[in-house]
């Protein structure tokens, strides 16, 4: 709870730690209400800092039982955030700190520090949770060797590193790799493991365990498979091998984020571990694969090389996201993966960058660092690395990474360190590129063309609109991949990368046989908003013939967006015939990857349309967008009914279920076909698919298709009867109904489901499945009477009292409020002010609403 106004922390104020830690020995006596934590910490003065500092240790919510220095007990007086030992009481060349504290994991509903979930003990320390376990310099640039003893009657007791020894009621662990406290982890519970092994390229035999609650042991096979493939991939592609004898993964039901890369002991939200064909969708399988890989990859990019301070968060997160994207592309399809990644980037990061929560990939200040685990730090951070690779080339990228690992292994680093290895290995100055890390906002690129006497001129202009605290923007170095297509569909100029490094860049091409069709920003070579006016037949040409799969997709998407914009702005009820014709050609092209066809067939989401209308200077009307998107779907369904029906048949996968890309793509296209078809056939095909489905992808897809046309009640009841005992599937049951509810039904339904006996709102997954789902139903959430805003604000306030981090994260549903009409704006402003005025507000939430109110 907030006692004083929380002060922001500034990057510019960074000071090296006055004391370093060599070793930490911890003993835990686990007890739900009274866990004792004994610590022995060897400190020495940091030669890189000025001498004579007091010792400041972070600590929150701890009951200090005793403390001593070099065996001499002392009377430390803790304050709300830690304790200070005056320099005068500290031996000059190092000392042993010993302390005994008591904590209550059972009452820890914030899920930060040591807490309990479903009867087991677990931890979450990133970013600043370790200070809720014991007194410590809780900052990532203090790296130490940890040894841990756990005392408890629970059968499974785990911590970081390698097991030392264990006996009845105790276990000891030793982690030989120095690490910051945020990578500390402990687990205690009655758990069951799936065990396997992996031999590293340097011959180390590693035991792999995935620990779950009894009853879930049949759901770990895919996660284990993904782990082994991740380990092999990191060796092959980056030359990085695992460095301990054991790798443990634990699934917990109550977890604020996706997962956590604690050294040798990754802790996961159970939704990113547990899967069977019957209970998990293809999208779930893909998330598991990606997140298992992501956390594993952190062992090098994050753990061996960590961040100097939390402003550098993207150093590990952007890089690790980029690595997991490369991995997924290799495992599945690069073309499809790139399209999906860009869709996510636009839906989450562009949205963030366009509103009051915009911040640079490396922020300059924060009040609560947990509020900066964002799409900007993660996904835009990954885009910056993708651009760097494009700018220096694949070979020099690998050389830069080798240099990074050699030079910085065991260190806590900065973005400057990162840029330096690219300058050295890439042989070029990157000071302008570095602006990407400090400048918020999505650049816009305007493309204009000129064709005269056989000379084709392309002009690119960049502009970045102001963002909070950054009124003026400097030109960025933007790699723009370009190709030219002939009107017969042949490529005239293969991909080349232009470097747009000033406000304007003009390029000319002589001796072209005809005016070409430019394919700009191939592969989405930079995270920008591209404005390039083309005729619809030119877009259709790119959709049919571009050699770049991303831009093929993008041509279809632009056509769809332009059609929907026209429908919304002119209130016509049908898209152009040539758009429908282009979709038909695509649908019938059986040489195309089904996954690709599924993506092109999916119309831009309501939120995408709202954002793009706003970007084009209009005030988006959520109801109109909802109506027109449906009208477009209906028109497409009627025009393409026979083709869609054929696809729905043709894309049947015989089984047994295979989560790999080939079958997943077929299911995606099948579900997409049935979803559109429902707008013409009243849901007949979807109802049939629901009944025949042998996997969750098709069952869920079919049910959602029915819900979207106002049907599916019987199927919902059947679904509940069948799955009520499976907590992860139950989340889907809650979520789908709200996500697909009609605009006038969404709020009352959310309200009703929030009274459901199974709405366990303290569980972050369940909260997201209900309250979060309303926010993801734009026409429902943005009811013009404000009931959606009120309901969400009430729940945010309630959640803030028990789990500030989760509440703050969910509050971002309001981030787009300034693009709405004045009525909705004032309704949301009132709710944000109501939240802000709450006396007991957490600092997590206080910071979020203050930023949103601007
Ligand atoms: N480092 C984790 C990951 O990206 C995320 C953990 C963040 N947790 C938090 N409470 N902020 O894999
Ligand atoms: Zn991460």
TrEMBL record:
Peptidase M1 alanyl aminopeptidase Ig-like fold domain mapped to chain residues: 441-532
GO molecular function: alanyl aminopeptidase activity
Cofactor or coenzyme needed: Zn(2+)
Occurrences of domain Aminopeptidase N-like N-terminal (ranges): 79-183
Tagged with keyword Nucleus: no
Chain ranges of the Peptidase M1 membrane alanine aminopeptidase domain: 222-436
Catalytic reaction(s) noted: Release of an N-terminal amino acid, Xaa-|-Yaa- from a peptide, amide or arylamide. Xaa is preferably Ala, but may be most amino acids including Pro (slow action). When a terminal hydrophobic residue is followed by a prolyl residue, the two may be released as an intact Xaa-Pro dipeptide
Alphabetized UniProt keyword annotations: Aminopeptidase, Hydrolase, Metal-binding, Metalloprotease, Protease, Zinc
E.C. designation(s): 3.4.11.2
Pfam families: DUF3458 (PF11940), DUF3458_C (PF17432), Peptidase_M1 (PF01433), Peptidase_M1_N (PF17900)
Domain Peptidase M1 alanyl aminopeptidase C-terminal: 537-853
Family (UniProt): Belongs to the peptidase M1 family.
NCBIfam families according to UniProt: pepN_proteo
Annotated protein name in UniProt: Aminopeptidase N
Organism whose genome encodes this protein: Roseinatronobacter alkalisoli
């Amino acid at each position: 709870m907030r006692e004083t106004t929380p002060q922001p922390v500034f990057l510019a104020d960074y000071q090296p730690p006055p004391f370093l830690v060599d070793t930490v020995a911890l003993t835990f006596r686990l007890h739900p209400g009274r866990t004792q934590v004994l610590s022995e910490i060897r400190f020495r003065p940091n030669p890189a800092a000025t001498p004579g500092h007091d010792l400041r240790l972070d600590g929150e919510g701890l009951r200090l039982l005793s403390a001593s220095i070099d065996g001499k007990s002392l009377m430390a007086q803790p304050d709300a955030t830690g304790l200070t030992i005056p320099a005068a009481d500290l031996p000059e060349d190092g000392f042993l700190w010993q302390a005994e504290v008591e904590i209550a994991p059972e009452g820890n509903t914030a899920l930060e520090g040591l807490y309990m979930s479903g009867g087991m003990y677990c931890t979450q320390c990133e970013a600043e949770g370790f200070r809720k376990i014991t007194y410590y310099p809780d900052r990532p640039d203090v790296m130490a060797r940890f040894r841990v003893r756990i005392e408890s009657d629970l059968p499974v007791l785990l911590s970081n590193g390698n097991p030392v020894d264990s006996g009845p009621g105790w276990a000891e662990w030793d982690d030989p790799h120095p690490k910051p406290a945020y990578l500390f982890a402990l687990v205690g519970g009655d758990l069951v493991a799936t065990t396997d092994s992996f031999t590293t390229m340097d011959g180390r035999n590693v035991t792999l365990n995935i620990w779950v609650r009894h009853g879930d042991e049949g759901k770990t096979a895919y996660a284990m498979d993904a782990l082994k493939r991740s380990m092999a991939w990191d060796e092959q592609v980056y030359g990085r091998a695992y460095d301990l004898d054991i790798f443990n993964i634990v699934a917990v039901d109550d977890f604020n984020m996706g997962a956590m890369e604690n050294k040798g002991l990754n802790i996961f939200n159970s939704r990113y571990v547990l899967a069977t064909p019957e209970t998990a969708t293809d999208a779930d399988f893909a998330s598991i694969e990606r997140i298992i890989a992501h956390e594993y990859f952190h062992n090098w990019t994050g753990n061996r090389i960590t961040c100097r301070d939390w402003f550098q968060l993207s150093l590990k997160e952007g890089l690790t996201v980029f690595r997991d994207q490369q991995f997924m592309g290799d495992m599945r399809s690069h073309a499809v993966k790139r399209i999906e990644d860009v869709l996510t980037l636009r839906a989450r990061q562009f949205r963030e960058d366009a509103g009051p929560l915009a911040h640079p990939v490396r922020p300059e200040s924060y009040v609560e660092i947990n509020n900066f685990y964002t799409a900007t730090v993660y996904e835009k951070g990954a885009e910056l690395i993708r651009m760097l690779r494009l700018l220096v080339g694949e070979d020099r990228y690998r050389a830069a990474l080798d240099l990074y690992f050699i030079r910085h292994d065991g260190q806590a680093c900065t973005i400057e360190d990162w840029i330096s290895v690219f300058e050295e290995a890439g042989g070029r100055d990157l000071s302008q590129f570095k602006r990407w890390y400090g400048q918020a906002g999505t650049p816009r690129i305007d493309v204009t063309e000129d064709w005269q006497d056989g000379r084709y001129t392309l002009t690119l202009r960049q502009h970045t609109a102001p963002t909070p605290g950054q009124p003026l923007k400097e030109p960025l170095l933007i790699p723009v991949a370009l190709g030219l297509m002939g009107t017969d569909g042949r490529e005239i100029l293969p991909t080349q990368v232009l470097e747009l490094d000033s406000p304007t860049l003009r390029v000319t091409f002589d001796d072209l046989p005809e005016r070409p069709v430019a394919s700009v920003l191939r592969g989405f070579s930079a995270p920008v908003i591209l404005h390039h006016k083309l005729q619809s037949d030119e877009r259709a040409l790119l959709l049919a013939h571009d050699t770049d799969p991303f831009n093929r997709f993008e041509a279809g998407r632009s056509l769809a967006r332009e059609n929907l914009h026209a429908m919304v702005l002119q209130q016509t009820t049908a898209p152009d015939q040539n758009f429908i014709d282009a979709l038909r050609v695509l649908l019938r092209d059986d040489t195309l990857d089904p996954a690709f066809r599924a993506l092109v067939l999916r119309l831009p989401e309501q939120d995408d349309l709202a954002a793009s209308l706003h970007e084009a200077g209009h005030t988006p009307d959520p109801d109109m967008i909802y109506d027109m998107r449906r009208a477009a779907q209906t028109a497409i369904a009627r025009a393409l009914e026979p083709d869609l029906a054929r696809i729905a048949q043709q894309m049947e996968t015989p089984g047994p279920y295979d989560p790999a890309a080939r079958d997943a793509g077929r299911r995606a296209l099948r579900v997409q076909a049935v979803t559109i078809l429902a707008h013409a056939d009243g849901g007949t095909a979807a109802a049939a698919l629901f009944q025949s489905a042998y996997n969750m992808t098709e069952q869920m897809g079919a049910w959602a298709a029915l819900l979207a046309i106002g049907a599916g009640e019987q199927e919902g009841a059947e679904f509940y009867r069948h799955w009520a005992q499976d907590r992860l599937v139950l989340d889907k049951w809650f979520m789908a109904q709200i996500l697909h509810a009609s605009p006038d039904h969404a709020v009352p339904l959310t309200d009703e489901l929030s009274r459901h006996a199974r709405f366990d709102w303290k569980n972050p997954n369940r909260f997201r499945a209900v309250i979060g789902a309303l926010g993801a139903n734009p026409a429902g959430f943005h009811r013009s009477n404000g009931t959606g805003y009120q309901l969400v604000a009430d729940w945010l306030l309630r959640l803030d009292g028990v789990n500030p981090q989760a509440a703050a994260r969910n509050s971002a549903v309001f981030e787009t409020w300034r693009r709405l009409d004045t009525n909705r704006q004032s309704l949301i402003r009132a709710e944000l002010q109501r939240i802000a005025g709450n006396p007991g507000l957490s600092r997590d939430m206080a910071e979020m609403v203050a930023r949103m109110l601007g």
